[in-house]
Design a protein that fits this description.
It contains 17 helices and 15 strands. By secondary structure, the protein is an alpha/beta fold. It folds into 2 domains: 149 residues, 3-Layer(aba) Sandwich (Rossmann fold), CATH 3.40.50.300; 286 residues, no CATH class. Strands 9-8-10-11-12-13-15-14 form an 8-stranded mixed beta sheet, sandwiched between helices. Strands 4-5-6-3-7 form a 5-stranded parallel beta sheet. The chain has a two-stranded antiparallel ribbon with strand order 1-2. Strand 1 and strand 2 form a beta hairpin. It starts with a strand and ends in an 11-residue tail after the last strand. The N terminus is likely disordered.
Length: 461
Amino acid sequence: MESINNGGLNTVELKRDIYKRLLEWKRENTHKVLELEGARQVGKTFILDKFAKENYKVQIYVNMAQTSGQEFLACLEQATAWQPGMKRKERPIHEALSLFHGEFEDNKDTIVVIDEIQESSKVYSMIRQFAREFECDFIVTGSYLGKTREKDFFLSAGDVDSLTMTSLTFAEFLEAAGKRELYETIDLYGASDHAQYDELKHWFDVYLHIGGYPEVVKAYLETGNLEQCADIIESLIRIFVKESGRYFESPLETATFEKVFSSIATMMLKEKKGTKDLITDLTSIIFKEESGRIAKKTVNYAISWLYLSHQLGYCSKSVNCDNLNIVENCRYYFMDLGIANYFLSLTGSMQETIDGCLCENFVYLMLLERIRRREIAGQVPWFGTDEESSGELDFYVRSRLNHKNYGLEVKRGNEIAVTANKLLDKGRLDFVYSLKNTYGGINEDKRAVPLYLAGRIPFDC
């Protein structure tokens, strides 16, 4: 576990919640290959190295983008070599692993981690064999698994378990700062000491602007320097764009991809109502003219790449807060607040306006995690509408725990949740959470909760 010196705070460890889920996967023993997804630099390799060393006697690591990947391919070639008339080997991939790593044994004390697996369609297409022909555990991962959607890559979905690793959540960020216990125990509705709320709000304001990439978090805890954090974020973006360019086929695709981030920030700051055609709207921003079919196709490819690379997420629209009347993929959000803040700031907008978008993005990420935990309905979070008044609700939640409807209004200032109240009066919502800069409070079916505690609000009341 990474130790960091946070300049004045006690030395702490950068703990990740996904470690517990890795342990659960090992205990469940499904005989499936685990595919760990996640954006570049969120800490996938580090957490897998820790997991392997602490839970297995033999750890085999292959990186298909580095020398070890080429060496493993050479072992595969030797072990699988065959000519007509030769007797077929019964377990050639086992032999390849033995050639690659002299201590390989096919049992539950051995784990094989294959990193950047998207670099080899040959190895990726062996996942079914890894799952069905081996006793040892396999984990595959990569920062650009969108590449594996191409026809050269074969994956049997029934042979794979999946986990997604994000940049640090706010709770994980607070743990690094030594404040997670306070976060998890403070009263949601204002009954705790106000000084404690103020302390959490301070850390939230930091997280809102730097996000959760491990390198950025460590830099802040070590130096407290926001400018240094911004430099690291810019460097992460630059490397991501450069590496992604390897997977694009034409200069037009590459040039378009480089403009997409800023164009999405522009869309977030414009009229909030969900668009009927995201690609058309985004294409018109990038190309500054009525878009042709080629331009739309190029933008769509770039957006898909950002989505599959875990840089962007979609939000859908629920018409009249009806969980059966959903218009898919009507809005974008960034998957890390530091990245979002960087591109929103490039627009030159006022910081107050930018912070409003960041707060909404923060709640989006919280809801996405609740979907992964199967607490709320949908494949992605939903925002809601009231067609009668043309009003809009920041987020609409249909609980899978009690099948009730919740409205969430994100208010950076002291605005009144007009649309939420109307939907509540009409019976389309059972409860409304007003998430804003407040100490909290309860008024029957209306609940005010500090914005930074959004990850703790219950959807079973």
